[in-house]
Design brief:
mainly beta, about 5% helix, 16-stranded antiparallel β-barrel
Length: about 500
């Protein structure tokens, strides 16, 4: 087992015993439970070069039990266990994959120490250790909340979770320390261990600062040093030929261009052709590497027919990087105090995250290719609904967000290439509409219609490599890839 993980659990165990021994236990709190059923349809779905499942029914259910215990005035523990059932969309040629699947889930297992006791009004310091959920943007319902739901290379953002609806937030393993500052400021610091994707067990540091003025206005900023430390440092940026990018200069025009092994191997990088030589842009004379230059070769003789770009520099791709997030929200209802509206109606909010301070050759050369921007509004329903949220996102990434290349050997920080059926360069806009209604205390109904970054569950109960809505519509009457889901949630 990784030494860092062993140290983490050993430290957590010591903290648990130290605080638990200080006071007599105050006992278990009443057990809480929750059951949820989601069903709907994926109207259009694109999850790979040959995998298109339009009009596909989606259904999953989950049940959860939560047990909290106060061991002393300042230390408590929280455990949550659950089970979920689901059906598989991408069946991969396995007939019995269509049957109902079941997976056990650990929802949380954490200890919390509050300096001065949990009953004080102002919390100067709180320590959270273990496996726990975390949400920093109280207004985000589906899109956004990407600080802990994204990666810098290859750029990935995700929505959804164990349940698709009402799951905007992170699910973390590690340490979380937070506290209040004067004048309405609040801070959070995290040491987290990556247990869900390559490189496994890499560690990250995150710092966040937010400010809130009553319930009218709030804002926040944050920075994350993703995969800052890893025991096997050579795997953070593998020194392999197929993990390199090449900065090149056109030998005639002086234009700079970035290439890498995957774009060269595709043989379809037509932008490497000179405009006056349009006949060479058909793919019949593919690019290849010849020493320090990228060249076009005659398809019959194999002779070099033109030196297109000259390589002047090269670099390796890395899993490590820095994210910077900013957000703000303004609640007009808190100013107007209209009795006919819910507390968060007439709110507008925005969040943006820069995934990588440095440009990523080929895949993220401009800021807009690394900067998803989400903005939303809570529409007034005059208490007919608890919430009606409409969110939009602009993200100009030109490549499919897929883990298939990263997860498989040799586990390099690379993208899967473009596919002719995908419309990635036009798939810049996402949307999400969420409606929520409390029927009776403990019973809630949701409806979500979205084109977001949701991924369906595979045969083993893990997220699929592809998000399911990667194509935009062709016009105002064509929504492109989207889905709709109802959710029934009961809790006590």
């Amino acid at each position: 087992m990784n030494k860092t993980v062993i140290h983490f659990f050993a430290f957590g165990f010591c903290v648990f015993n130290a605080f638990a021994a200080g006071e007599q236990p105050t006992g278990l709190l009443p057990m809480r439970g929750m059951a949820s059923v989601e069903f709907g349809r994926l109207e259009e779905v694109f999850i790979g070069p040959t995998k298109q499942f339009d009009k596909e029914f989606l259904q999953q259910a989950s049940g959860w039990l939560f047990q909290d215990a106060n061991l002393s005035d300042d230390f408590d523990i929280h455990v949550g266990l659950g089970v979920m059932t689901f059906s598989v969309i991408d069946r991969a040629g396995v007939p019995n994959a269509q049957f109902r699947r079941m997976a056990p889930v650990l929802a949380q297992a954490k200890g919390v120490y509050t300096l001065g006791g949990r009953l004080q009004e102002a919390t100067p310091l709180r320590l959270e250790v273990g496996l726990f959920p975390f949400k920093y943007n109280s207004y985000a319902t589906n899109l956004g909340e990407y600080m802990f739901r994204s990666r810098v290379m290859p750029i990935q953002v995700r929505t959804g979770g164990l349940d698709v609806i009402e799951t905007a937030g992170g699910f973390l393993t590690g340490f979380h320390v937070d506290g209040n500052l004067p004048a309405g400021f609040h801070w959070d610091a995290f040491y987290t261990i990556n247990m869900d994707r390559v490189p496994l067990k890499a560690q990250s540091l995150t710092f966040m600062l937010d400010y809130k003025y009553k319930n009218i206005f709030e804002t926040g900023i944050g920075v994350q040093f993703e995969n800052l430390y890893f025991d096997r440092k050579e795997l953070l940026s593998p020194k392999e030929n197929n993990n390199m990018s090449y900065k090149s200069v056109h030998n005639v025009t002086g234009e700079e261009k970035n290439f890498n092994v995957r774009t060269l191997g595709a043989g379809e990088y037509s932008t490497a052709c000179r405009v006056e030589d349009a006949a060479w842009c058909t793919g019949e004379a593919p690019l290849s590497q010849n020493g320090s230059a990228l060249v076009r070769k005659d398809i019959v003789s194999g002779n070099v027919v033109d030196t297109v770009y000259r390589i002047v520099d090269s670099a390796y791709y890395s899993f490590a990087g820095t994210k910077v997030v900013g957000r703000a929200a303004l609640n007009f209802q808190s100013m107007l105090q209209m009795e006919s509206l819910n507390p968060k109606d007439l709110s507008i909010y925005v969040e943006a995250i820069l995934m990588g301070l440095d440009k990523v050759p080929v895949y993220g050369e401009t800021i807009m290719e690394r900067l998803p921007i989400m903005f939303g509004i809570n529409l007034p329903t005059f208490k007919l609904l608890d919430l009606l949220s409409l969110e939009f996102e602009l993200f100009k990434l030109k490549y499919p967000m897929s883990d298939v290349v990263v997860q498989g050997p040799p586990e390099l920080p690379n993208y899967e290439m473009l596919d002719a059926k995908g419309n990635y360069s036009e798939d810049d806009w996402k949307f999400s509409l969420l409606a929520k209604k409390t029927v009776v205390p403990g019973l809630e109904i949701f409806l979500q219609v979205a084109r977001d970054h949701m991924r369906t569950i595979d045969f083993w109960g893990k997220d699929n490599f592809y998000e399911v809505t990667q194509r935009n519509g062709k016009g105002l009457t064509d929504l492109g890839d989207f889905y709709w889901l109802f959710r029934f949630k009961y809790y006590y």
